[in-house]
Amino acid sequence: MEKNPCFAGVLYFWRVTRLTGIILSGILVSWLTASAILHRHVSDDAIISYTVDLKKQDLQLYWKDDSGQIFKSIQHLKDFLEHRHKRLLFAMNGGMFNADNSPVGLFIQHKMTLAPLDTGSGTGNFYLKPNGVFYIRGNTAAICPTSEFKNDGQVTFATQSGPLLLINGAFHTAFKKGSVNTNIRNAVGILPDNKVIFAMSREPINFYDLASYFSNMGCRDALYLDGFVSRTYLPEKNWTQTDGNFGVIIAVAAPE
Predict the structure, then answer these.
(1) Is the separation of the CB atoms in 71 and 244 below 8 Å?
(2) Are 26 and 178 in contact (CB under 8 A)?
(3) Pair 75, 234: CB distance under 8 Å
(4) Quick one: 57 exposed, middle or buried, by C-beta within 10 A (0-12, 13-18, 19+)?
(5) The predicted structure's pLDDT at residue 133
(6) Residue 247 neighbours by CB under 8 Å, 6+ apart
(7) pLDDT for position 25
(8) Which of these, 56, 51, 59, 92, lies nearest to 239 by C-alpha position?
(9) Where does residue 206 fall: left (phi above 0), alpha (psi -120 to 50 degrees), or beta otherwise?
(10) CA distances for 90 relative to 53, 94, 175, 191, 231, angstroms
(11) Cβ distance 222 to 188 under 8 Å?
């Protein structure tokens, strides 16, 4: 029987369209899968993070013990807290420090200014302006440029560092995508719900990618804390670095 040429044309068009749709669907699924893997790698594999709710958790900045000895390591802080029947849940180095382990820039502890705000200029990451201050007032945390920080006497804790990674949602202008200036680095950001997120790279990372992490988490403000010496204690994620030789240590503890 002779085939209808009109029907054959419609059938050919249908087959081509269906095949094209299958190919495009496969490409889309592959792209989405690759994107999901990349996101999972960046957030879970390359970065270790901890989120703090100041309304429910006790976040403090530590430097010296009751006898005036600098803690220096996370282990020393852990021992100090355990003697006071407290369990360390999280700890991270909390800013840059001098050769004698004193804080570089502002340090406020329990409303007492133990190191003054540094508004000067110099070399190194700390002076890659704008630098900034991470501070806690009551059960609220904030990050601001050094030039905007005002202590009204109600700031409970504060540490100064630099550079700022994010300033009102914008990346620091000195950061370059694809930069080969990489290091193990840690930082802090403020989430949209006003919780605080601390993050440290598990592997060397540049400033642009570290800022991107906080931006992807929804932070509009984030502050670099330090690099190379960075350590994090987070047993809930099987990450327990207890060494170090720091100045300020940021930590969350709970009663035993």
Answers:
(1) no
(2) no
(3) no
(4) middle
(5) 98
(6) 63, 70, 93, 94, 95, 96, 97, 98, 101, 102, 103, 104, 107
(7) 45
(8) 92
(9) beta
(10) 13, 12, 29, 18, 11
(11) yes
Q: Which amino acid is at 64?
A: K
C-alpha–C-alpha distance, residues 94 and 61, integer Å: 8
Tokens linked to 79: 């021992």
First to last CA, the chain: 88
CA triplet 140, 171, 95: central angle to 5 degrees? 50
Q: What's the pLDDT score for residue 171?
A: 98
- Beta partners for 250? 61, 92
Predicted pLDDT at 18: 53
Q: What is the CB neighbour count within 10 angstroms for residue 35?
A: 10
Report, as ranges of residue numbers, the positions in the chain whose pLDDT lies below 50.
1-14, 16-17, 19-43
Q: How far is CA 100 from the centre of its chain?
A: 26
| CA gap 229, 135 in Å, rounded | 22
Residue listed under structure tokens 């704008």? 130
What global pTM score does this model have?
0.83
Residues 6+ apart with CB under 8 A from 255: 85, 86, 87
